[in-house]
């Protein structure tokens, strides 16, 4: 590739005898070049630093192995001065398939780094605008695509500076502890972009929908249950966010407070009652109220998860005590004789069975046991209402059994090792 001026011979630039400038040139440096070529930098804000040494810093004035008398073609020439931004990277900007000049002017540009436009205006020359929705991500609104995307290459998809959530926490550092918390919304761990559009969206925080409508996008089963239930948890009036943090708080089920005290935030009366008991029902003590109560809605009163007779007399039938038997051994009520289904037995005679399977006089669990707690072991009542009568209840315990002193029958004793004859 030869300089076209050579078609007129060496004397088109050099005086054969003498000249005012070095090498008998009639003009010095770029002034000579501009006597034939138009200025490539006039009116531009950003000029290639290489031009400080003149046009010949890149172009040989006579000839070269590459077009325009350059010493090498394409980006291989650029890399003689600039580092290769794509070397070893997994994801390279597709524009670089056409070389560095697809974005950078080799002489000058109106924007920094000899670019033809600034920020997003440059990107939108090839990419569609991502600001079409009502709420726009701050960096996007500012036109700073390079706040998230490397314009050359990256190890992360879409030339992001980091993969997945690691990119988000570069700015949203307050959310980083969630990535290692014990209880974080699974959809968050899978990716913030499952809920938040990284560019723009119709709702605040770049969300596709507002409030419960967003949650229902994944939890449609919970929404259907709440809508179809006869009894709805009143907390639902405040929306999902009334109980759950959408990201996670480190507590189970992303609850907004520790599970041991969470329900007490609304049920203060139950807190006073339960804390007054010496013994508490195990799920109550651990704050797992949902073991018995459906937190969203139920077809049963008190939002119960299963059947639990509310009457004094309720003989055992299959399914009648499904709430209790969801945790407790089925044989507790189903078998008259057992050696393992319950410790409340006289020899192998199941005393739970005796109480609940007594014809029409079968007593429900609530007659003897408190559902949340009580002041006797095994959640036994100290007394029980029976019309206007307060039936006294007193249990004694031994290594192999115990005794029961109540108002409804004479004192009786039992032993698991050897049946007691009362």
Describe this structure in words.
The protein is α+β, with helices and mostly antiparallel strands. Helix content is 17%, strand content 12%. It contains 14 helices and 16 strands. A 4-stranded antiparallel sheet has the order 13-14-15-16, with no helix packed on it. Strands 1-3 form a two-stranded antiparallel sheet. A hairpin with a 2-residue loop joins strand 15 and strand 16. The longest helix is centred in the middle third of the chain and has 9 residues, at 220-228.
Briefly say what this structure is.
The protein has helices at residues 29-33, 74-78, 119-123, 138-141, 165-168, 186-190, 212-215, 220-228, 259-262, 268-275, 282-285, 322-325, 331-334, 351-356; strands at residues 46-47, 91-92, 108-109, 135-136, 153-154, 200-201, 231-232, 279-280, 297-298, 345-346, 349-350, 373-374, 383-386, 389-397, 401-406, 409-415. With 422 residues, the protein is of the alpha+beta class.
